[in-house]
Amino acid sequence: MPGKVFVITGPSGVGKGTLIRTLLERMPDLELAVSATTRSPRPGEEPGVHYHFLDDVEFDRRVVEGDFVEHAEYSGRRYGTLRSELEKRVAADHSVVLEIEVQGARQIAQTLPDAVRIFIAPPNEETLRLRLVGRGTDAKDEIERRLAVAKAELEAQHEFAHVVENDRLDDAVSALERIVRGVA
């Protein structure tokens, strides 16, 4: 059976990374596509493992060369999914999970219409704010920028066939796993 592409999106701080890590533990046959970004690595992030860290010039070159299946700007940084990240896995009949921003998920709907798109939503905006502050990785002005973007992104939930509310981690991962197993 050919591999499937699962696009998991939602606002910054909603817990996409934690949900995906737990999903991958439960479903070890799934593979995570490593995104490219122009932002600097956070403490503990390794190039090629957490992201492909590119400078603006390299990112631009790769956009022009058509190396991305999607790319977007988010909160002053650029992110994208390299075509090679998907092609090598899907060609080997592996299902792939993409953790991307809403802009990129919209592009994937056009470029890969068979991709399964899943939106992760917070129980409310205050919970989202507390999560962003609690992770301690962003300055106050960056948190405010991310929250402003998040408000617009939350309005996009209706564009997705699947919405998972991340209130309690175990419940959210179980819901995500049901979607993936039901489609895969």
Automatic annotation (TrEMBL):
Question: What family does this belong to?
Answer: Belongs to the guanylate kinase family.
Q: Does the keyword Transferase apply?
A: yes
- What are the GO MF terms of this UniProt record? ATP binding; GMP kinase activity
Protein keywords = ATP-binding, Cytoplasm, Kinase, Nucleotide-binding, Transferase
What is the annotated localization of this protein? Cytoplasm
Q: What does this protein do?
A: Essential for recycling GMP and indirectly, cGMP.
Pfam families referenced in this protein's UniProt entry, alphabetically = Guanylate_kin
Protein name as annotated: Guanylate kinase
